[in-house]
Please model this.
Amino acid sequence: MYTFPNRLKITFLVLVLVGAAGLVAGFLSAPSSIAEAQSMVADAHHGGGHGETHGEAATISHGDSNAEKNSHVAETTEAHEDDHGEHLLHQLQNKPWAALYVAAFFFMMIALGTLAFYAIQRAAQAGWSILLYRVMEGITAYLLPGTLIVLFLLVLSGMHLNHLFIWMDPEVVAHDKIIQGKVAYLNVPFFLARAVFYILGWNFYRYISRKYSLAQDAANDISNHKKNFRWSAGFLVFFIVTESMMSWDWIMSIDPHWFSTLFGWYVFASMFVSGITVIALITIYLKSKGYLPEVNDSHIHDLGKFMFGISVFWTYLWFSQFMLIWYSNIPEEVTYFLTRIEDYNLPFFGMLVMNFLFPLLVLMNSDYKRSNYIIVGVGIVVVLGHYIDIFNMIMPSAVGDQWFIGMAEIGGFLFFLGLFLWVVFSALSKAPLIAKGDPYMGESERYHY
Amino acid sequence: MSSNKVIHALYDDDDVLLKAVKSIKDEKHHIEEVYTPFPVHGLDKVLGLEGTRIAIMSFIYGCIGFGVAVAMINFIMIADWPQNIGGKPSFSFLENMPAFVPVMFEMTVFFAAHLMVITFYLRSKLWPFKEAENPNPLTTDDKFLVEVAVEENEKKLTALLKKTGAIDIALIDKDH
Model:
């Protein structure tokens, strides 16, 4: 049995408190009036010359660009200034909300990606990974709090407490033909009902598979194992549909004019590689503390192969999405990448280095995948890289070019990091770290490459 | 080697073969070669063979393929005959780079794969119409053959091989 040391508890608590302080500071510093917003931007950019460039960027960056463009043409310059100021105010007010949402989504996504990996191991009757089952179950323990927090934020958006999802604003919809055409799908009650449906399904599988996994420890036959196999196979079917729809709902709809048909896969690759990386990081941590003695470098090697392979898979999907849109150069599609390349140049291309080039070159060597130090080093870069990936998906549509990694962003990350680790480590301490009743346990213990 | 005599021991199971090779090695006999109809997992480790270096060559060949692709596309699409395709005039390699990525990827894989196979053939001394070297045609079917050098200890070695589960043992004098 693993005991959750007090030293770690204090560390995680500090992370949560520091993160909460950063979030509060972020929310307090958000402007409440147009004048305040304009003076903030003027201060930050040393006045003059900004208004022009921003106006240009804002029309292509925000989802309601069409409606805005029409009103721009019709109205006088003075009205344009007001309109612009209001837009800026919304972006700056969105910023702490978006920072909170990105971090909440990111850590929920790690738990969900791990749950998918776990279900695949169960459904494939894998033999090598049994030793890691309890680590995976520990990580997926965050799924329930994580999804509930995301649901809570979505409900707040539905109550118009923030403007993350502009299609929720009846004013915007009234002036926007494209969103009007999507109202049958994009309306608040149906949106929240779908969210509840996904969350119930995922957490039901997590609950039932954990129950059978623990029951198998003491069982004399393998009936629990067989039931787990069937539920896992069923869950994977449910998951691939709901995950895809979740990515349209919770991320793609923030920019309701734009769509990409492989977006669900792209988000899946991101969550899958983040989940696998976190499994490797926590396994190596536990092993360094003397737990999981049977985990050998072949298990780490296999996790490293998955990290390498899924990083390349992620890049494949990223590039497939990018190249088709870049090549066809259709205005309503290409704005998505224009804003990201113009306003988010460093995070956009930096993320490619962190998520593709770095793991590709470092993890290519077979021996490096067996080294704990290298897996930990690459793992930290990959996890941060995928945080930036989610940041790049959400921020440009929510705050336009008004982004920076400030107190709210760092605070949000630390808050959910602390909460995530607290939940994971307390779940790890609740059950034996070795699923000793599993029929494939022997194979996993003897596993060598 | 004091003589040119070898013993050919035949096995009919890969697990038995692995254990046999281990015990032959433990008794400090010199194993010249093992012939198997398929790759036996873990045999290279038991025999104490060096790890393959073909992965390094694969990486180098991939880099060559990548370089060839860049040079080739740059010449064809930019330097020699720039064309305006889909409103994207090819006057700069970097600006058109995303469209070239699939070609660069395929050329990398093509070079790595083909040159690696050719390297493997050269290192294994294989070429068309080469005469087979395996001493017993059964090793192309379902039997495993271990070739052990004999040095004044024929009886002891034969006894050991019998104990390890060999189904047939033959003394071969390579001079004749």
